[in-house]
Amino acid sequence: MLRGRDDECRAVRNLLDGVTDGGGALLLHGEPGSGRTALVAYAHRYAGHCTVLAGTGLAEEAALPYAGLQRLLDPVLDRAAALPEQQRHLLRRTLSGEGCPVDRHLALSMAVLGLLGAVARDRPLLATMDDVDRGDRETTQVLAFVARRLRHLPVAVLLTADVTTTVDGIPAHRLRALDERESVAVLTDRSPERPAAPVAVTLAAVGGGNPQALVDLADVLSPEQWRGEDPLPTAPPADGALGRAYRARLDRLPPDSRRTLLLAALDEDGDPGTLMRAAGAAGTTVEALAPAEVAGLVRVEPTGVTFPQPLARAMVVASAPLAERRAAHRLLAGVLDPEGQRLRRAMHLAAATAATDPALAAELEQAAAGGQGGWATASAALCRAAELSDHPTRAAARLLAAARYAWAGGQPGQARLLLDRLRAVSVDPGVRGRAELLRGELELRCDDASGASITLLAAAGAVAGNDRALALAALVRAGEAVCFAGDQYRYAEVGRRALALRCPNEPPATELMGSLVAGVAATLRGDHERAGPALRRAVVLGGRLTGPALTPTALTCAAAAGLVVAVDGAAHRLAERAVGLARERGELSMLSRALELRAVAEYWLGRHEAAAETSRDGLRVARATGQVNCANVHLGMLAVLAAIRADRGASLRWIRGIGEAPAPGSRPHALAGWALAVLDLVDGRHVEAADRLASLARLGTGRGQVLVQVMATPYLVEAAAHLAHRPAATAALAVFDRWASSTASPLRRALSARCHALLAPRGSAEAEREFRTALRLHPTEAGTFERARTELLFGQELRRSRRPRDARGHLHQARETFTLLGASCWAEQATAELRAAGESVGPPDLPAARLLTGQQLRIAQLVAEGATNREIAARMFLSTRTVDHHLRNVFHRLGIRSRTELARAFAAELISDR
After folding, report:
1. Which residues lie below 8 Å from residue 382, measured CB to CB, with a gap of 6+?
2. How many other CB atoms are there within 10 angstroms of residue 841's CB atom?
């Protein structure tokens, strides 16, 4: 199978399927190893109804005019008798090596066209020339001429060339790099057994999406490497097919060009000053790269040298002899500043060193401390430091640090491989315990979260004797794991072990973690009197963190505490700080979790659009860093937010994205159930909605998603209000009440009052009292959606109690708010209720300024002025993706379909204002 080449295969089929009605041509171009030759072979297999002529451009014959044409046409030269005499003689003379005068080039090209037409009289013809750019220029010119004149002939021409080659007038397909999924499929096709997931992901990254690189890698791996037990290659093999292709290109360069190109490839920072000094030390200049630039291997610009083809840098390095590589590394180290460029210099020295070198290992460790130079670079430096170490314990500690840095940089596959190497060499219990802590965190974010708690609890026990803070960190993660998996009953053990570790006068970050675990444990057992103070203490400590204690991890702990104790504004500020700090430090491993907490805070604050945008951002980060569990939580949150907007199509798409991987009882599974229940509620399927929401957790057992069910309780009660028997809703409301009453959150108390109103007898004084209490408690600065829902439900209650006049005010308020929020389905429900209450209503007549948020209004104004999305993004410091998202919402809220209609709407509004 040609993985990732569906579009190109389709283009080949289209070319050949239509050849009998008139020919055409196609140029496939891409970097070496991208699959051009495989596509030519595919065309040959598909062209069973055609005569096939096949040729290949050869660098050895590039200086021989028409050599490629001669090899292509040789099998059919006997058909030249059908040509006019002058064309026949010119063609034979040219292909016999006598050349073609300049003024006869057109005649020669027409002769070739005529010959192909004569061959195609019997059956359609396919002529292919692979690597046309490597052969002689004259052949390329003739074939390009012919390819542009096939409209009335049953002839197809397929050419392939390097990525830098184009041919005017011929349709072209640029072969893209394979994505991770396609790369893993290529590796799986070639492996004797399915490779371990971390191995496949790492090899996919090393292969750079190049099919031949992946095949070459697969062909040299040992069984131990396939299983992830031995280190993996960091580049495709130099003696593979791709390596030979690059070596052939490099061999055609002058020696000075190759030497300077190797220096440029090894200097990954691309600083032009460094390369100039290194080239000078090597006795050459940067200008020596000119032949390499002509060959398409590099681009030389004032800002530095870049390699446009993803694998070119790695293959230049891999193709160089070891002695030349080490000499180049020493040259680069010699021109770098020992202070300002410490890590780069140490890395080059390490690459030039063969034996153990404790002093250089220590220098690498110090220069890379804290992720200096980027987490991936720091991880590579620590790996090399481990190899240069002369003591197993120091080597193990450095290997562990390398794994931790790889994970911080969002490379879980690399982190796992390093941990596996560490498991084979480390005997120090402390190192093993810290390694298991990291392994447990990887399981929590990327693998089996239910098993992660076991790993993390064991890690906490292993490190507790030497590092209480680290043991508490392991317990915090273990608590996350049991909550994610729906095993909250196991949180009691986490709480007991954390309590045993706590001491007076602890550092703020350590006290914060202990307070979080204690507060969550108390919350889950219903002891809100103890939970509240502990969780509020964690929030306060999070706001006071400074210096080294201020980390994304500590801030997310504080934000999580804020959400459990319902201080939404503080939780949002802490999560926002965690997001900013993670981005600033490049800690991608924590960014998705921080975005998850920010989205939940935005949900409670009533900022549903912001929550959806945050979850989309978190989903992108989680997918890019292999955090499957985090990605599924974001998908679940997006499904809930879409369902609350009554956007069935979007909600179901997000749910389908989760798939079947999350186990029943896990957080993604519960979020998906919540979303489906809201859709049931919107459609009036109250029994189904209540059953779904009641099944999210088994109250009293600690199993299932207790915290998700608490969030969803208002929807459970609303569904149950239509049923005769409501034991599940009553029990869930009792849990919600105990929590809400322990918080200082007006929103939670308002929702509690609304729920009691819904369960009260219809038309009773109790129902009206509870509804009015809810409206009094709803905050005015946040939660406008929930207030509008309360207004709608109260209006429904009054109308159905035969008090239509009293109902109308609440229904009008609900309708206007839903319209402002773009919640069209709920606005339509309010409209239907108003009509049932005896009022004739049309579409709301609201100006754009009231229908749109401030940011949406500014974007709409710029569109009305004629600005493009890219121009708007630049002016408002947004991404074009964000502008696209806001513009779709603008169209939806204003009920328009195009930018032209938007301009007219704003023009009409401007005239009416005047």
Report:
1. 364, 365, 368, 398, 399, 401, 402, 405
2. 16
Strand segments, DSSP code E, in 162-298 are 172-174
Residue 534, helix vs strand vs coil: helix
Name every residue whose Cβ is closer than 8 Å to that of residue 684 and which is 6 or more positions away in sequence: none
Segment 609-623, tens digit of pLDDT: 999 999 999 999 999
**CA 546/CA 557 separation, integer angstroms:** 15
Q: What is the CATH number of domain 626-836?
A: 1.25.40.10
Identify residue 399 by its one-letter amino acid code. L
CATH number assigned to the domain with residue range 848-913, chosen from the 4 options 3.40.50.620, 3.30.360.10, 1.10.760.10, 1.10.10.10: 1.10.10.10
270 CA to centre of own chain: 26
C-alpha to C-alpha distance for 134 and 708, rounded to whole angstroms = 62
pLDDT for 677 equals 95
- CA–CA separation, 206 vs 225, rounded Å? 14
Quick check: 542 and 558 in contact, CB under 8 A?
yes
- Domain-wise residue ranges, the chain: 6-174, 180-237, 502-625, 626-836, 848-913
The Cα–Cα gap between 456 and 323 comes to 46
pTM (2 d.p.)? 0.79
Region for 607 from its dihedrals, namely left if φ exceeds 0, alpha if ψ lies in -120 to 50, beta otherwise: beta
Topology alike, domains 626-836 and 848-913: no
**pLDDT tens digits along 13-56:** 999 998 888 889 999 998 889 999 999 999 999 998 899 999 99
Rounded Cα distance, 598 and 634, in Å: 11
User: Which residue(s) pair with 155 in the sheet?
Assistant: 125
What's the one-letter identity of residue 341?
Answer: Q
Q: Which of 446-482 are b and which e, b meaning 16 or more Cβ less than 10 Å from the residue's Cβ?
A: bbebbebbbbbbbbbebbbeebbbbbbbbbbbbbbbb
Report the b/e string of 102-122 with b at 16+ CB within 10 A.
eebeebbbbbbbbbbbbbbee
Tell me the C-alpha to C-alpha distance, in Å, between residue 201 and each of 177, 198, 490, 625, 861: 15, 5, 33, 11, 45
Structurally, at CATH architecture level, domain 502-625 sits in Alpha Horseshoe (1.25)
φ, ψ at 52 (rounded to 5°): -120, 125
**Using the 8-state DSSP alphabet, how is residue 487 labeled?**
B
- Tell me the pLDDT tens digit for each residue of 510-538: 999 999 999 999 999 989 999 999 999 99
For residue 512, give the amino acid letter: L
Task: Name beta bridge partners: 704.
Answer: 487, 697
Q: How confident is the model at residue 425 (pLDDT cuts 50, 70, 90)?
A: confident
pLDDT of residue 10: 92
Residue 876 has pLDDT above 80, yes or no: no
For residue 703, list its beta bridge partners.
698
6-174: CATH topology is Rossmann fold (3.40.50)
- Give 3-state DSSP helix, strand, coil % of the chain, rounded to 5: 70, 5, 25
- How much is the pLDDT for 205? 86
Structure tokens that stand for 240 in this block: 């593979």
859 within 8 A of 880, measured Cβ to Cβ: no
Of the pLDDT bands very low, low, confident and very high (cuts 50, 70, 90), residue 847 is low
Q: How confident is the model at residue 914 (pLDDT cuts 50, 70, 90)?
A: very low
Whether residue 807 contacts residue 833, with contact meaning beta carbons closer than 8 Å, is answered with yes
